Amino acid sequence: MHSQLVAKYDVPGPRYTSYPTVPYWESEGFGVEAWRDALAETYAAEGRRTGIAVYVHLPYCESLCTFCGCTKHISRSHAVEGPYVDGLLAEWAQYRRLFDADLAVREIHLGGGTPTFFSPASLARLVDGLLAGTRPADDHEFGFEAHPNSTSREHLERLHELGFRRLSLGVQDFDPVVQTAIHRHQPLERVREVTEQARALGYASVNYDLVYGLPKQRIEGVRSTVRDVLALRPDRIAYYGYAHVPWVKGVGQRGFVDADIPRGADKRALYEAGRTMLEDAGYEEVGLDHFALPDDGLARAWREGRLARSFMGYTESRTRICVGLGMSAIGDAWGAFAQNEKKVATYLERVGRGELPLLRGHRLNAEDLVLRRHIHEVMCRFETSWDEAEGAMPALRDAVAELAPLAEDGIVELGSNRVRVTARGRPFLRNVCMAFDARLRARAPTAPTFSQAI
Q1: One domain, residues 355 and 379
Q2: CATH code at 287?
Q3: Can you tell me the distance from the alpha carbon of 414 to that of 252, in angstroms, rounded to the nearest whole number?
Q4: Residues 358 and 369 in one domain
Q5: CA torsion 247→252→253→258, rounded to 10°?
């Protein structure tokens, strides 16, 4: 990759798990009733047919990993489990009244934080409560994130009994120097043990999260980590770029000095080293920062044009309703977004009063919906197209103008009514999406907001 292109396009930019991105939501005038109306509208239009997804945010961690950008709450007391599960089920009961008695649940994703901070019994009580009076869709996908050190065989057994078949393990990096820098210690043997237990129980897909650009990370260490990962042959690998955003996460990302963090071309070289090894081993690059074996469902969805992207990341099914439960969780009704309170105490207080604990939200206007579709297609298919009517929209004309320099640099192929990301342009996928981002173009952030795009 040309270092000049990296220097040119390594600018702050969103990851586009939504459009508009959260800093550009217009929350004024958007409340609980507007959110309920948006859910009802999308459910009536297609949710009855497709089913819905449920994302559950489980924020607790026993210790702080200093690379982490997630919304979490550090606690060593497991007395928090019961009240939090009670709060989740109380919130779910309010949503449950909005949908039919014969509600189909297509996806459940337990994220965090550390979902396996919670005991197997607590997680079983939660999932039993979510599924009570509903039915799993025939092709449902239930998955959970896990810390290898806190994931027991009983966790795997209980969740498998409840229909979970997807497991995502946070590996990050096996280099002990990097693990010390990010305060994330887990041995290779523990990852191997959890992986083998999951496969023996019948989990259909095991994902590893790896991160490039971590403090003190070097190419030799990345290659060593990837070699160890390839020996375990996970079905999927999410190979994320480290997002250094201390202005958002505060002191938790100041456990190392800035000079320890690879940047620009040096950071991208870490990704390219890992990508080459993964592709040589038979993994297919899927969308942004994801790899999968050819027979994994994510790779099939990619090849068949069914890949979808949401706040849960890439998924195989296009479900336009996602109910977000828990503190900071974000729900999506395609035409609207809503996010919950970001403090545990406030969240629990509000659900205890029988409220939907919304903090903010956004109702998409007609332009938003058009741009959301194009950004989604670029992220999921590396191309998008528009008809004459859309092409006449000022926002689309502006996007085409913004894409012209990227075409000159070989990042995209630009036609009269379509754009396609080239193989050379894949590292710049976020930059391509930024060309469609009318809100970002109209009002650039005046303070640090997004991580670097490359």
Answers
A1: no
A2: 3.80.30.20
A3: 42
A4: no
A5: 100
Q: Are residues 11 and 73 part of one domain? A: no
Domain count, the chain: 2
Any idea what DSSP says for residue 448? -
The model's pTM:
0.94
For the chain, the maximum distance between any two Cα atoms, rounded to a whole number of angstroms, is 60
Tens of pLDDT along the chain (454 residues) come to 577 899 899 999 999 999 999 999 999 999 999 999 999 999 999 999 999 999 999 999 888 787 777 788 888 889 999 999 999 999 999 999 999 888 999 999 999 999 999 999 999 999 999 999 999 998 899 999 999 999 999 999 999 999 999 999 999 999 999 999 988 988 999 999 999 999 999 999 999 999 999 999 999 999 999 999 999 999 999 999 998 766 555 555 455 788 899 998 999 999 999 999 999 999 999 999 999 999 999 999 999 999 999 888 899 877 899 999 999 999 999 999 999 999 999 999 999 999 999 999 999 999 999 999 999 999 999 999 999 999 999 999 999 999 999 999 999 999 999 999 999 999 999 999 999 999 999 998 888 788 888 8
CA distance 330 to 326: 9
Alpha carbon separation from 331 to 156, 310, 328, 361 (Å, rounded): 27, 10, 10, 9
Q: Is 286 helix (H, G, I), strand (E, B) or coil?
A: strand
Cα distance between residue 437 and residue 449, in whole Å: 15
What is the DSSP code string of 199-242? HHHT-SEEEEEEEES-TT--HHHHHHHHHHHHHH--SEEEEEEP
Instruction: Tell me, yes or no, whether 77 and 183 share the same domain.
Output: yes
Closest to 417 in 3D by CA, of 396, 436, 439: 396
Structural domain containing residue 443: 1-20+365-454
Residue matched to tokens 């396009």: 9
